[in-house]
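Duplicate of #3305? Posting structure anyway:
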């Protein structure tokens, strides 16, 4: 059974030449009903208000059918309580999911942001990596099964307790006991 999504580790690094005076944050939309948001930007300690840094890592569940992912820089207006979009970048998934790029490799990318009128409004810098399912720590676990009756999704053998052989066979949880 094939997975209907993949997990991306996206680190929103920073933005530059952004024209914001209020608290800015980034919303990531991976062509699904889910969206992911960073915390508001941290103070970078410089006098340059056009450079904002987030340095926040998000695990994004990206549908397999998705053709693009959208990054929106928004800012909160503390007096009105509403958020306004400062800039948007819509990025083709093929830009970072190329066949020649190995799984688990980290790519750092920069994209131009545009406002809703299409005018340039800064650049966003982020890193992206496809999370491999086997990265989940399984020390001491001989096998882990996704759901009853489905295929074995990962197995790790502890060298001290076995001879290094893993065998898999289907099983049924509620199968009637016939003797």
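Output from current build:
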């Amino acid at each position: 059974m094939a997975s209907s999504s993949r997990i991306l580790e996206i680190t929103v690094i920073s933005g530059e030449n952004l024209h914001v005076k209020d608290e800015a944050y980034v919303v990531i939309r991976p062509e699904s009903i889910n969206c992911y948001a960073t915390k508001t930007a941290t103070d970078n300690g410089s006098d340059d208000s056009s450079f904002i840094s987030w340095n926040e890592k998000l695990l994004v569940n990206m549908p397999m059918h998705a053709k693009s992912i959208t990054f929106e820089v928004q800012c909160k207006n503390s007096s009105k309580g509403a958020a306004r979009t400062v800039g948007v970048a819509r990025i083709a998934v093929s830009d970072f999911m190329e066949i020649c790029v190995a799984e688990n490799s980290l790519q750092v990318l920069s994209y131009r942001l545009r406002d809703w009128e299409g005018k340039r409004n800064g650049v966003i810098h982020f890193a992206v990596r496809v999370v491999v399912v086997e990265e989940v720590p399984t020390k001491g676990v001989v096998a882990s099964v996704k759901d009853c009756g489905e295929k074995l999704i990962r197995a790790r053998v502890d060298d001290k307790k076995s001879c290094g052989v893993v065998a898999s066979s289907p099983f049924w949880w509620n199968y009637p006991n016939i003797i």
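Confirmed duplicate; merging threads. Residues 5-131 form a domain with the Immunoglobulin-like fold (CATH 2.60.40.150). DSSP finds no helices and ten strands in the chain.
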